[in-house]
Amino acid sequence: MLTIRPYENSDSLLEITELLHLAYKPLADVGLNFVASHQDEKITKSRIDKGNCLIAELDGVIVGTITYYPAANTKGTEFMDRVDVASFGQFAVRPDLQGSGLGSRLLDEAESMARAEDVTELCLNTAEPATELREYYTRRGYRLVGYVQWPELFYRSVVLSKLLKEAT
């Protein structure tokens, strides 16, 4: 049985980190050094602590995750620094379950968190060359709002955002 629930301190950081590595491996294999492809458990925990992490569990095994970051913890570009913009990251689904709708369910939950926080936009950043990821987010209603070159990455990132409500 599949459940989506909040992260608990008893959840295995090793299991979550290994899931991130596995899900991001195809991107790393083509030279995109997403932090999630090689981060350690300390980074995983640090990122979880900055937001609201959700866990997808299938028969007691962690098979998906996403972390929603409230506007106060969304920073890095002029767009992301806005007080009405939240973000998400550490978004991963076990490869054999990708395309099953699980990722959409996790992202729906993150979007619901953003709406509950009453922010105007929910954004993310991803590798500019990651065409399939960009197309996935575009189908979900995300649009290009900017670019950023993170110092630790070998590629330029795109900032994509979804308008959740009109600004007041």
What are the segments in which pLDDT stays under 50 over at least 5 consecutive residues? none
The secondary structure category is alpha+beta
Rg, Cα atoms, Å:
15 Å
Tell me the span between the first and last alpha carbons. 42 Å
Structure overview:
This protein is an alpha+beta fold and 168 residues long. The protein contains 4 helices and 7 strands, in the order E-H-H-E-E-E-H-E-H-E-E. The protein has helices at 13-29, 41-49, 102-117, 131-139, and strands at residues 2-6, 52-58, 61-69, 85-93, 121-127, 143-148, 157-163. A 7-stranded mixed β-sheet has the order 1-2-3-4-5-7-6. Helix 1 (13-29) packs across helix 2 (41-49). The chain starts with a strand and ends in a 5-residue tail after the last strand.
List keywords for this structure.
168 residues, alpha+beta, seven-stranded mixed β-sheet, 4 helices, 7 strands, 30% strand
List the helices and strands and how they pair.
Blueprint: E1 2-6, H1 13-29, H2 41-49, E2 52-58, E3 61-69, E4 85-93, H3 102-117, E5 121-127, H4 131-139, E6 143-148, E7 157-163
Parallel strand pairs: 4-5
Antiparallel strand pairs: 1-2, 2-3, 3-4, 5-7, 6-7
Helix pairs in contact: 1-2
